[in-house]
Structures are given as C-alpha cells and as structure tokens.
C-alpha cells in the first residue's frame, strides 16, 4: 500500500480512540514504528505500509479494560484493506507474540507453502487471534532481464548497464557537501525524471557502448515482474519464517500452545523441514533452564539444616511432610485463578516451602521440648497443637494479607507468585493441623536423639 493509504487507516484508528472515554492521550508515527518506549519492545523500521500509535489510559482496570480492548479490536477490524492490531505492554523478555512458530527449511517456496498451512492451522485453533504470517502477501519486484549475448554483440559492458539504470532511477553519489555546522550530505546526480521515478523512467534510460554510441535500454533488456519474499529470516543459520499469534482473553497461553503443537505434529512435513516454537514457550524454557537445579539445591539445603537442628531424621521427616500440602494448595490456586506455572510462580513455590517449613518447625520443636520435660507423647502432641496453632495461624494470615494486594492486581509477572504462596499457606496451615500431629504420632523421634 501507499503512504496515503496507511495514513487513512491510521486516521480511522485515531477516530476510534477519540471515542473512548478511558483514553487519556496518544501519539502516532506514520511510515515507521514508535521510538523505544518500553524495555522489551523493539522499534519497527521504516516502511510505507506501517504505522504505530502509543495510547495512554487514564487508569487500567484488570476487569474492565480488557473488555474495552476487545470491543476496540472488533471496531478496528471493520476497516477494509488493513490489519490493525491492539497490543498491551507486558512484562518479560522481548518476544514477538505469545505463540510463535518458526518454519525452517532450505527452500523459500516450500517454506512459504508450509507457513500458509501453519497460519490456517493456528487460525482454526480455539483461543488464537491476530495470526500474522509475514509471507502471506508476496512482494513484486521489477526485473530488467539483460540479454548477455546482445549486450556483448553491441559492446555494452555489464557495469555500464547497471550504472545507467542506477543513474536514471536512484542516482549516483558524486561528492559530498559540508554545511557550516559540520554536517555532511551526499551530492547525488540523477537523470531528470520528475519528482519520483516510475516505469516511464526506465524507457528513457540510455546505455553507452564501447564505441561511443548511445542505445536505449529496451534494445538490451526486457522488463518483467517477478515474485519475491517480503523478508528472508534465518534461525540457526537456516532459512525460516515465523508465524505469530496472540491469545484470546480468557484462554490459557500454555494450553492453546499445546493444542497448536498437537496439530503441528499431526501435519506431514517434507524431508528437511521442521518447526520450532518461539514466543512464551521458548522464553519459559530458557527461564526454567536453571530453576530445576535451584529447587534441588534449596530442598537439600533445607534438609541439611533440619537434620543439624533436630539431630535426627524422624523430626526432619515430620517437618517435611507439610511440603506436599503446600504445593497442592499452590497448584490448586493457580488452576482456580487461570494462571500457569511460570518462572515467577516457580519462585513462589520455593518461597512457599521455606514459609511452611518454618511453621512446621514451631510445632515439632515445641513437641520435642514438652517430651523432654517428661510430658507423655499423646499429651505433648495435643498441647503443642493447641498452643502453637494460633501463632502459626496468625503468621500465615499476616503473610496472606500482605500478598493479597499483589495477587488482586492481576499482573502477569508477579500475581502468579503471590497466588502460589497464598494457596499454599491456606492448604498447609489447615491440613498440617491434622497431618503433622498424626505423622508425629506414627514416627515419634527418640528422645535420646533430640
């Protein structure tokens, strides 16, 4: 499209924004992307068919604003001949889209066909929207096909032909101009073809021969149109095309990605062609690369500290029985709130283990103290449960109260961590009231080892 056509689509989008009462203001850039205004957004380069609008809202309500953005997407989709996307800034590493599929192989034509199949597959998968295939619309190039035999017969070197065409269409730099401020500008010489070169300019191109004659370009070459890819992308030094998709509100990104992967695996891929996932799947895999080791180290560290504190394995085992109770509560809370096991959620599980073990230590240690003072096993368990339950309950309630504002903000980066700790503390505090005394009754530590 032309710059004027892009400008018309931009004006339409701005008119729609003007009717939204929640919009505080906006600014637009035509022909290129906005400057970098968010840490994980890479600015778009110059293109006549591209424009961007940065919109600032008066406030962001986690329930009302997403519904308004859905209505805005529906209104903008009515504009013909343009793709207008509405995207929110999100925290995390820079990714092109939540769901991203790279089609990789040696031949661009085959990649284009496969990318089209992947695009249709993603469009028909529930939960996806704004599916973008960069190879959907091919670019049309003008090619001057030179007849090498005729050029050699007439004495026209290839370099002279290229220089003559460049002189008529783009111009040739011949010198530089330096203004008083020190800035330098290229001086470009071009054949007079009007304000903008067009197809008629090629008919006026004259090519000098080695004998000094001047020949029209039509005697040496023919003009034809040819299909060309809009971009050539490489991934791990292989040719690739990336098909991106956003996720509908109310759908879980991990589940939609799993549905897309299941259908991709069912596709018949030619030999030498395959796909890899980008987007949130790739960033999560990179983020989780070292989290497993960190969890193992943390668990063994906690185990070693408990053994050193109690001096026996039975007390340590009783304390650790609270861990699965908290993990189950954290997983249940993630499921109830529609969140996934993200990187920050994993950090929440590590923090949860430390908090619930602290509460369990209060009970086990006090029970050991009572038994050391001569109180019978059953009575020691009962008294420890009565005396220590209130401090444990108040400690958990204080932590839950402090985390609730962060959880209710519904921020994708921190809210899953808060929900994990809240759910784990609720389940471990309530269930440990039953499980920990029972475990202590079943495997009481020997008092000589306390």
Q: Output the CATH class name of the largest domain.
A: Mainly Alpha
Q: Sketch the topology as an H/E string, one letter per element.
A: HEEHEHEEHHEEHEEEEEHEHHHHHHH
What is the assigned CATH homologous superfamily of the largest domain? Multidrug efflux transporter AcrB transmembrane domain
Name the beta content range: 15-25%
Q: Which geometry do the CA atoms define? A: elongated
C-alpha end-to-end distance: 80 Å
Find the count of extended strands (DSSP E, 2+ residues): 13
Structural features, described:
The chain folds into 4 domains: 1-91; 97-133 and 240-278, 2-Layer Sandwich (Alpha-Beta Plaits), CATH 3.30.70.1320; 139-228, 2-Layer Sandwich (Multidrug efflux transporter AcrB TolC docking domain, DN and DC subdomains); 288-449, Multidrug efflux transporter AcrB transmembrane domain (Multidrug efflux transporter AcrB transmembrane fold, Up-down Bundle), CATH 1.20.1640.10. The protein starts with a helix and ends in an 8-residue tail after the last helix. A hairpin with a 5-residue loop joins strand 8 and strand 9 (214-216). It has 450 residues and is an alpha+beta fold. Helix 11 packs antiparallel against helix 12 (343-372), helix 12 packs antiparallel against helix 13 and helix 12 runs parallel beside helix 14. It is built from 14 helices and 13 strands. It has helices at residues 3-18, 64-76, 108-123, 148-154, 158-169, 199-203, 253-266, 279-287, 291-310, 313-320, 322-337, 343-372, 377-408, 415-442; strands spanning 23-30, 51-57, 99-104, 128-132, 139-146, 172-178, 184-189, 206-208, 214-216, 221-228, 233-235, 238-247, 274-278. Strands 3, 4, 11, 12 and 13 form a 5-stranded antiparallel sheet that branches. Strands 1-2 form a two-stranded antiparallel sheet. The radius of gyration is 34 Å and the shape is elongated.
């Amino acid at each position: 499209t032309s710059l004027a056509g892009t400008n018309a689509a931009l004006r339409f989008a701005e008119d729609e924004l003007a009717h939204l009462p929640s919009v505080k203001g906006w600014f637009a850039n035509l022909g290129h992307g906005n400057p970098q205004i968010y840490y994980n957004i890479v600015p778009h380069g110059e293109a006549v068919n591209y424009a961007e609008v940065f919109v600032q809202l008066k406030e962001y309500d986690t329930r009302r604003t997403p519904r308004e953005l859905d209505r805005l997407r529906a209104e903008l989709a009515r504009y013909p001949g343009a793709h207008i996307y509405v995207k929110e800034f999100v925290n995390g590493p820079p990714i092109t889209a939540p769901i991203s599929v790279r089609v990789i192989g040696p031949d661009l034509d085959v990649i284009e066909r496969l990318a089209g199949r992947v695009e249709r597959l993603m469009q028909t998968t529930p939960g996806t929207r704004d599916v973008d295939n960069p190879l959907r619309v091919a670019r049309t190039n003008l090619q001057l096909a030179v007849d090498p035999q005729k050029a050699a017969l007439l004495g026209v070197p290839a370099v002279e032909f290229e220089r003559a065409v460049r002189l008529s269409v783009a111009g040739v730099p011949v010198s530089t101009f330096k203004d008083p401020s020190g800035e330098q500008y290229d001086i470009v010489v071009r054949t007079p073809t009007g304000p903008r070169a067009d197809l008629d300019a090629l008919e006026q191109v004259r090519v000098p021969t080695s004998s000094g004659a001047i020949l029209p370009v039509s005697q040496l070459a023919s003009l034809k149109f040819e299909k060309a890819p809009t971009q050539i992308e490489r991934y791990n030094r292989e040719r690739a095309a990336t098909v991106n998709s956003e996720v509908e509100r109310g759908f879980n990104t991990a589940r939609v990605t799993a549905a897309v992967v299941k259908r991709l695996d069912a596709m018949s891929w030619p030999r030498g062609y395959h796909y890899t996932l980008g987007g949130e799947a790739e960033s999560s895999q990179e983020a989780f690369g070292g989290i497993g080791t960190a969890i193992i180290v943390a668990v063994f560290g906690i185990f070693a500290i408990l053994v050193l504190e109690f001096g026996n394995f039975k007390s340590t085992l009783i304390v650790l029985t609270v861990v699965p109770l908290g993990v189950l509560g954290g997983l249940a809370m993630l499921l109830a709130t529609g969140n996934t096991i993200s990187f920050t959620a994993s950090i929440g599980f590590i923090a949860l283990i430390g908090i619930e073990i602290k509460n369990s230590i209060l009970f086990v240690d006090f029970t050991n103290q009572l038994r050391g003072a001569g109180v019978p096993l059953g009575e020691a368990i009962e008294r420890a449960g009565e005396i220590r339950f209130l401090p444990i309950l108040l400690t958990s309630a204080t932590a839950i109260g402090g985390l609730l504002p962060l959880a209710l903000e519904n921020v994708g980066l921190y809210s899953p961590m808060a929900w994990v700790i809240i759910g784990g503390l609720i389940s471990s505090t309530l269930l440990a009231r039953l499980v920990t005394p029972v475990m202590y009754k079943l495997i009481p530590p020997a008092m000589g080892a306390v």
